[in-house]
Amino acid sequence: MLQGKNILLGVSASIAAYKSAFLCRLLVKEGANVKVLMTPDSVNFITPLTLSTLSKNPVYSQYFDAKSGEWSNHVELAKWADFFILAPATANTIAKMANGICDNLLLATYFSMENPVFFAPAMDLDMFQHPANKANIQKLISYGNYLIPAEDGELASGLHGEGRMAKVENILDAITPKPSFWTNKKVLISAGPTYEPIDPVRFIGNHSSGKMGIAIANAALQKGANITLVHGPVSLDLPQKSNNIAVKTAKEMHEACLLNYSDAEIIIMSAAVADFTPQNTTNQKIKQKEGNLTITLEPTTDILKELGSLKKQNQFLVGFALETNDEINHAKEKLIRKNLDLIILNSLKDKGAGFGTDTNKISIINKDNKLITFELKSKKELAFDILSTVENQFLNS
Ligand code: CTP
Fold first, then answer.
1. Residue 37 · residue 9 · CB < 8 Å
2. Is the pLDDT of residue 64 over 80?
3. Do 191 and 148 belong together in one domain?
4. Does residue 181 fall inside a structural domain?
5. What is the mean pLDDT of residues 202-208?
6. Is 221:214 a contact under the CB 8 Å cutoff?
7. Is the pLDDT of residue 321 over 80?
8. Fewer CB near the last or first residue (10 Å), C or N of the chain?
9. Tell me: the pLDDT tens digits for 87-130?
10. The predicted structure's pLDDT at residue 320
């Protein structure tokens, strides 16, 4: 399950750092691409040469190489990684991660991580049991990081108790994705706005940023799904491991969605598709003139409705509804009219919901008219809520 995964292995300054060599070797044997990040002090416990030899990659411990002047870009490293595993995680590095202190490359990379972070504490008994350390571990868990618990045993000080870094086999087991509902599921997602051209320099568009759809794509990728993402013009970073299809107009989005529909098992249409497009697009820029300008608009194809009419038994179709009034009734009507399995409603009346924001407030309605409401949350968190709801409904439908 780790074949082809990009893994950052973080090493901080503990005697358990020698076990990082075994972990590194195991990860490489599993087919993962491993890059090692070391805190400056950890190089006293294990040499970068050992870890670069085992990982078959340069080891990163400084922001820049004093000799070559080469700079290590922590953002690039974080983007590259499917996971970050900090093993061993010392009390000091845990405290810095928990409290926003960023005084080395490993920490800077941690703070840039969007994908899962695992940490395997290793320290002596008294340090481990100190309330400050326990509170820091809890903080890291509350930030969404995954704890790989320390084990009981003999410690470097000669004391006996909790604090030994988990066995490398247990670390490997903890980070290995377990097959789930989403593993290899073929998911088609649409995201972002469409731009309908008026002339070579102007278009009719909307305020959709694509954030919600891209967050769903990222969450589903994290869960092991195969994603095709059909997206309108967006200025966000796209997921790196999905099949991304860039389109501009509603017509192009229609074609791309249709082309990828028959293979898809779950389809989530979050794009804000233009309902109308200029009937004629001029080849030359429309010049200034006296009086009004009339542009005749004609309807576009309702992509979601068409997909609903073509839906096969094994396909699960999810639409969005953006409403400004009588929200629930309008959403229910769309669910039936477009033959959907679920509809995700957001209302422009809710503060923090809708276009461009990092947060959203949604309700989900199923075919039995059951309404599930969610708090105002980040779009990234809601993406996981949406996937859990889809999974539950899919399994019960
Ligand atoms: N949709 C689509 N094709 C269109 C218009 C909308 O596939 N031409 C999809 C959207 O991706 C969304 C759902 O239909 O999943 C609902 O979009 P929304 O804009 O809320 O509603 P409309 O169906 O366009 O209806 P109205 O504008 O009248 O509210």
1. yes
2. no
3. no
4. no
5. 96
6. no
7. yes
8. C
9. 999 999 999 999 999 999 999 999 999 889 999 999 998 999 99
10. 97
- Shared domain for 170 and 212, answered yes or no, is no
Pocket test for ligand 1, best of 249, 261, 322 (most atoms within 8 A of CB): 322
273 pocket-lining for ligand 1 (C-beta < 6 Å): yes
CA of 273 to the centre of ligand 1 (A): 6
pLDDT band for position 5 (cuts 50, 70, 90): very high
Secondary structure letter of residue 193 according to DSSP: B
| Segments forming the whole domain that contains residue 300 | 186-277+294-396
- Of the candidate ranges 205-209, 289-293, 336-340, 350-354, the one whose mean pLDDT is the lowest: 350-354
Residue 316 sits in the same domain as residue 224:
yes
Distance from the CA of 88 to the center of ligand 1, in angstroms?
Answer: 50
Q: What is the pLDDT of residue 94?
A: 98
The rounded distance, in Å, linking the Cα atoms of 206 and 351 is: 19
Q: Does ligand 1 have an atom closer than 6 angstroms to the CB of 261?
A: no
Average pLDDT, the chain: 94
Q: Is residue 180 part of a domain?
A: no
Query: In angstroms, what is the span from residue 223 Cα to ligand 1's centroid?
Result: 27
Give the closest residue (by CA) to ligand 1 atom 13.
320
Task: Write out pLDDT tens, residues 353-362.
Answer: 777 788 889 9
- Examine the fold and report which residue of 146, 175, 204 is the final residue of a domain before the chain moves on: 175
Positions marked active-site? 206
DSSP state of 367: T
Q: Report the CATH number at residue 170.
A: 3.40.50.1950
Task: Provide the number of structural domains found in the chain.
Answer: 2
Report whether 190 contacts 167 (CB < 8 A).
no
Average pLDDT over residues 303-327: 96
pLDDT digits (tens, 9 = 90+) for 20-38: 999 999 999 999 999 999 9
- Residues in the chain, total: 397
Which tokens sit at 8?
A: 């950052």
**CB atoms near residue 394 (< 10 Å):** 16
CA angle 83, 7, 41 (to 5 degrees): 100
Ligand 1 within 6 A of 212 CB? no
Give residue 285 CA to ligand 1 midpoint distance, Å.
Answer: 30
